[in-house]
Here is the input.
Amino acid sequence: MTEMNTILTQLEAASHAGTLKRYEKIGETKPYYGVPMGAISGIAKAYKNRLDLFAPLWQTGVLEAQYLAIQIAKNKPDQLTLEDLENCLDEQVSVNVLDKLASIILSKRKDSRDWEETLLAQKPAIFQRLGWFLRAKYFAGNSASNQEIEETLDHIHQHLQTADPLIQWTMNQCLVEIAVAYPNYLEQGLAIGQELAVYADMKVPKGCTSAYAPDWIEALLRRK
Here is the structure.
């Protein structure tokens, strides 16, 4: 049995009925085994920093194998090749997996701003979604110029309400990050959120925070 077959067997053996049911309910991208994230993290410990496994795991197309690839590489994101990462950017891949790739790998790389620009220049909504996530992370770093902030707020003001739902989520996140990280733009961020009212009617479980920008901003400020 090859090492890749061994890993896939480990993942399949960790399948959990509750996770399978949840994936079926949300219409998660197939194929998947239904492995909880905690179990994937546990398996990843045995293959820590094995960057040679990243591409083969991703190419299986199995949801959990792709999550595992990200976990294995998370401590050395800059050592992944551009080719490996470009091959990950496929519209057929789960949105949740690509979100994780952006969060754990792309945002931690030294060239994250290059990835931001590259992704925002792509036509598919899923890639623009990732680009806006990286832009939000950049603004959260509290190093943006006033011009960058003002141009971005103007763009959000014009496009957030009508953006594709995939893009809307991370564009809204960018609005929130700006308002929280830059006190001089807090009032403007709140005003844009109130005016556009995106996610204003979102129903959230007790104890969770709505994605409605004014609520999200206030929740983050309370934690500061």
